[in-house]
Amino acid sequence: MEDETDTEPNPHPHGGFPAGKVFLSGIAGFILAAAINSGALLADAEQLPDSRSRSVSVAIWSPIEKIASTLKLTWPRNVGDFLLGRNEGEDQVDLRREQIGAVPQPSAEEWPALSLEEPSPTYELDQTTAVASEPVWSSGNPFTIWVLGDSMVQFFGETFVRMAERSSLVAATSEPKLASGLSRPDYFDWPARISDVMTEYDPDAVVLMFGGNDAQNIKTDEGQWLKRFTAEWEEEYRSRIALVMDLATGTEERVVLWVGQPPMRGEGFDSRMKQLNDLYRLEADSRLGVHYLDLQSLFTDENGAYARYLPDSSGKLTDVRLTDGVHLSHWGGEWLSDFLLDEIEKFPGLDGLWGE
Fold this sequence. Notes:
With 356 residues, the chain is of the alpha/beta class. It folds into 2 domains: 19-83, no CATH class; 143-345, Rossmann fold. It has 10 helices and 9 strands. The strands form 3 sheets. A 5-stranded parallel beta sheet has the order 2-1-3-6-7, with helices on both faces. It has a two-stranded antiparallel sheet with strand order 4-5. α9 (267-285) links the parallel β6 (255-259) and β7.
């Protein structure tokens, strides 16, 4: 007698997995691998020759690295690098946070020589610019701050806004543009944007940070290409710095802070950023209303060397830089934001914005 019991046919007679699940598993594995290796991929992108391809690669991998680092997804790669000896000399253990001077006097060995005719100035932060009428700030009339710049702002801007707006007397805005700078106005025109912000919003304070993408050949308005760091290049680049500073200053009452680039892990990239910092410092020094802030002592160890880990106020080592050796981590962004708020409070009439 035949068994007439209904049976469902086995959709996978050979014990395999549905193609859809295999595909999704592959996609998930690819995403996880990209997150784990995002630091190395971003570092590779940073080392590409200055080009549109480099700008696009950095723009893609920077946010991925930030998310992966925040979620601690990069630890397998970090452990592997450590076991293979790839991080030797990078992670500092015997560290201390040095007292931060707003604009320290550089030594002759610290900064590369520039082909500039101006004598070396004495770099001191001028805090004489006062808010003329000393208005009474309130939630209805807040002290407004705009933070503008390249991908470095992307990694601390929102943290700065959150910390600044702990006071009901302050309203802050962060506006970063990845892969931008002053060298490529054809990609993003910062002078035009800054002019619009000053005209439309008239902020009480402006924080500017550029340079990460600017150590490249630049094209003049006449169509001439200038090789980076030649005398002609420096003259053209300084004129662009000057234009941005003058647009941001606007009135004597506005606080303008130009933040220098922090020390970088790569020796060559670090040297280029120091050369740019020198130019920012020189232009700021020639203007009463612009104040240059140096970050060297904020993100270096007791020997003045690049450090990814630094102790917080309790002495606990804190990851202040991303694995790319360029951008700031979440905690590094908090350090920088706290530093900037302290500097703003030094100006006359602003010492009570964030309490005693």
